[in-house]
TrEMBL record:
Organism whose genome encodes this protein: Acidovorax cavernicola
GO terms for MF: biotin--[biotin carboxyl-carrier protein] ligase activity
Record Gene3D superfamilies: 2.30.30.100, Bira Bifunctional Protein, Domain 2 (3.30.930.10)
Record-annotated BPL/LPL catalytic domain positions: 25-204
The protein's name: Biotin--[acetyl-CoA-carboxylase] ligase
SUPFAM superfamilies in UniProt: Class II aaRS and biotin synthetases (SSF55681)
Any one GO CC term of the record: cytoplasm
Coiled-coil residue windows: none
UniProt KW keywords: Ligase
Enzyme class: ligase
Catalytic activity, EC: 6.3.4.15
């Protein structure tokens, strides 16, 4: 798996991040097809230990709805951070997990909200309608699973650190160095990883409720006219306590929970 990692990357990831995540194996590789694909492969092979897998470059990065996630063109310039967190999880209810993950990452990147880092349902992170972070969440069921058994959760996160071209992205990119000129992949990972694990464990214990108001505080769609990829159009009234998107249409209030739809402020293309 992967080719040998650049020494600086491996050293800094190991030195900075591993001590923050006791119980997790922290791995850094120079190149891989996709950190999500790798952890899902391992889970299907029965390897379900907690792990953080970071790659300098992905050759087949994946996004939501089967879309590709382009790797940074110049990994040596540390222009992106791509990683996946894998861990067994057994919440009573999975609804709202992806939103809770978005809240955690947005708060780590912009704790005070000064830089207007916002959340676009279900879990994109935007700044001024430009995409800063993409999140892809997948789960694998153990072969011998009981219905209420833990699933292996894989949370894949791609963060634009340096400038990147739009290169086919549906939403124009934003990047962290626009306001944090010294940002680097290991340091960003250091600020994001530990709160993310804490948030996932809080979600497992308490569900989406502790995250609902925090999501609302950064919701970039609330109060805007939106269009969904399934044709629904209306006024976004924010997110419900179960994590569903609320859209007021001519037919009344619709609660959108499907992961299979994409939503855009009206006028923006899919
Ligand atoms: O915006 C999206 O549609 C989600 C993008 C998720 C990209 C990350 S990068 C690390 C992890 N590995 C992948 O192949 N995808 C996720």
């Amino acid at each position: 798996m992967g080719t040998p990692t650049s020494a600086w990357f491996e050293e800094r990831i190991a030195a900075a991040v591993a001590p923050l995540l006791p119980g997790f194996m922290v791995e850094a590789v120079a190149e891989i097809d996709s950190t999500n694909t790798e952890l899902m492969r391992r889970a299907r092979a029965g390897r379900t230990d907690p792990v953080l897998l970071v790659a300098e470059r992905q050759t087949a990065g994946r996004g939501r709805l089967g879309r590709p996630w382009q790797s940074a063109q110049q990994p040596e310039a540390q222009s992106s951070l791509t990683f996946s967190l894998g861990m067994p999880l057994a919440p009573a209810d999975w609804s709202g997990l992806s939103l809770a993950v978005g809240v955690s990452v947005a708060e780590s990147l912009d704790p005070t909200g000064a830089h207007k880092v916002g959340l676009k349902w279900p879990n994109d992170i935007w700044v001024n309608d430009s995409k800063l972070v993409g999140i892809l969440i997948e789960t694998a069921m153990p072969q011998t699973a009981q219905p209420d058994a833990a699933r292996y959760l894989v949370i894949g996160i791609g963060i634009n650190i340096g400038p990147r071209e739009a290169d086919g992205m549906r939403t124009p990119p934003a990047w962290l160095r626009q306001w944090q000129p010294e940002a680097s992949a290991p340091e960003v990972l250091q600020s994001v990883a530990e709160p993310l694990v804490r948030s996932v464990l809080a979600f497992e214990a308490h569900g989406f409720a502790p995250f609902a108001e925090r999501f609302a505080a950064r919701d970039v769609l609330r109060g805007r006219e939106v269009t969904l990829s399934d044709g629904t159009a209306g006024l976004c009234e924010g997110v419900a306590w179960g994590g569903e998107l609320q859209v007021r249409t001519d037919a009344g209030l619709q609660l959108i929970s499907s992961d299979e739809v994409s939503v855009r402020p009206r006028g923006m293309s899919f």
